[in-house]
Backbone:
């Protein structure tokens, strides 16, 4: 469900887009961990696997990382910005309960965080009318920062293994595959669109969002976010100065003077 919290809700609403030539491997140490048998089961006996790239979010890697590592704060920001209304509740050091208010609820755990890569495991249920689909997701998200013009962006590639859990009726789970794929295809565009909307608002006018938070809440998280946003703006400012100097000197370079 989401880089993804910005990737939190994406864990259970992941979809396929541009296929990647090389599959992102799931970390072997997690598969070999005896206490992670449920994760191994999802990866090795999935109902659907999809990998997609080109998931670009406006903003710096540092800002996105701050949001991902503070999902409850991010949920409050998204609501303050009028982007998303979902709830996230901490259940452990890296474990949360999430409800996207659109039919997806479940437990999400950050299994591993390394430079440029996050690994999640989620277990939950999708409900829509009479449809009720329980399932699990094992997900690897790789990301890298880039610049285009005067803006930072974060390019994401996500590999997700989805297992539909239908007790005693495993063959029936395979029948859910087209439904699961349709759900995933709709949700990915929705989620990354909303995530990019939040990142864009924070990049262009952060105070308009931060001032809408309830008073005296998330003070440490807000202070750190302001520092990260300012650092990103400073970096862009330095880039503009470098480009201006290059532009002024380019005629001399071309003429040899």
Residues:
């Amino acid at each position: 469900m989401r880089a993804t919290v910005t990737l939190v809700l994406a864990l259970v609403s992941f979809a396929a887009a541009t296929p990647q030539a090389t599959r992102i491997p799931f970390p072997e140490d997690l598969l070999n961990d005896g206490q992670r048998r449920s994760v191994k089961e999802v990866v090795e006996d999935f109902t659907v696997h999809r990998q997609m790239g080109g998931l670009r979010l406006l903003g710096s890697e540092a800002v996105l990382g701050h949001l991902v590592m503070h999902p409850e704060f991010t949920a409050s920001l998204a609501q303050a910005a009028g982007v998303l209304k979902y709830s996230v509740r901490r259940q452990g050091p890296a474990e949360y309960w999430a409800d996207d208010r659109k039919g997806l609820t479940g437990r999400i755990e950050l299994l591993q965080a390394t430079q440029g890569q996050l690994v999640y495991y989620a277990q939950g249920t999708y409900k829509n009318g009479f449809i009720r689909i329980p399932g699990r997701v094992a997900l690897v998200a790789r990301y890298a920062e880039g610049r285009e013009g005067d803006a930072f962006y974060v390019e994401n590639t996500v590999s997700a293994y989805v297992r539909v859990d239908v007790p005693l009726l495993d063959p029936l789970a395979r029948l859910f595959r087209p439904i699961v794929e349709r759900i995933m295809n709709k949700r990915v565009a929705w989620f990354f669109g909303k995530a990019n909307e939040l990142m864009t608002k924070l990049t262009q006018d952060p105070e308009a969002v931060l001032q809408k938070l309830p008073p005296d809440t998330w003070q440490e998280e807000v202070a750190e976010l302001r520092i990260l946003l300012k650092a990103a703006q400073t970096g862009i400012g330095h880039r503009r100065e470098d480009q201006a100097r290059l532009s002024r000197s380019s005629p001399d370079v071309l003429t040899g003077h």
